[in-house]
Amino acid sequence: MERVHSGLIGPASPLPAERRKGAARKRFTLARLIDAAAPYLQVAPLTFTFAVFLLVPIATIIVVSFWDYDSIRVIPDFILLNYEELLTSPVTWRTYLNTLKYAALTWVLTLGIGFTVAYFLAFHIRTLTWQITLFLVCTIPFWTSNIIRMISWIPFLGRNGILNSTLIALGVIDQPLEFLLFSDFSVVLAFVHLYVLFMVVPIFNSMMRIDRALIEAAVDAGASGWQVLTNVIIPLSKPGIAIGSIFVVTLVMGDFITVRLMSGGQSASVGLMMANEIALLQYPAAAANAVVLLVVVLMMVALMLRVVDIRKEL
Prior knowledge:
This protein is mainly alpha-helical. It has 17 helices and 2 strands. α4 runs antiparallel to α13 (238-254). It is flat, with a radius of gyration of 31 Å. The N and C termini lie far apart (79 Å).
């Protein structure tokens, strides 16, 4: 009986201990692998969505841009003729310059209006309730379709529209102003109306993040209102200005329906040129135009990001 008892409570064999250590090492290794793979698993859905809905379409457009075509069909091939015809055509250069003109004018006007509105909401409206209320008022026109908002300018700016009729009735002018509608003026006006909110929102967000103690310190140091604006508020609002500028410029560069409706077919843009090529079933030419436009827009965005490093500023 004692021998059995002593055998039961005697020292354990080293084999189970080694097994326990091996199992512990395996569990530790598995835990490290899971920890290392966790970030990749978290970004996998976003990466998949990004690849399917952005990278694959862009790659498809690039491939099609090298294909050939005739009046009735698209021919899979590898040619550079589409890019040669595009880049050597004077019409292309004039169209791109016209589009850049629209983008520059729209950017200047939206920046001025957006900065003024954001500044008023951030620094002159003291209560959060009124800030939210007035901000929602700014968004009311954007609850309708872009096309409806564009068309609403036609009866206002037309030859016999509200504005001309009012000016004639007041004796300000003797005959209707012809430049108000179906002109570059109406195109830029519609662009500003459509996209100004994309400038207001990021600038307002940047201004709301400015520490008010910095402004008080500048005032206590004897800075004037203009100096506070130029040396404190504008530098700290640069991230919002950069983000708003990217939104506005990229939207204007790719827009075509605004130019078609508000110019009456008298002006051209890159987007409108691509739309006409698609209507004529010239898909490879339109794809080449889209690739060139993408490169131009990316260069413009890169230039903006060199002026303001958004990652450091935010």
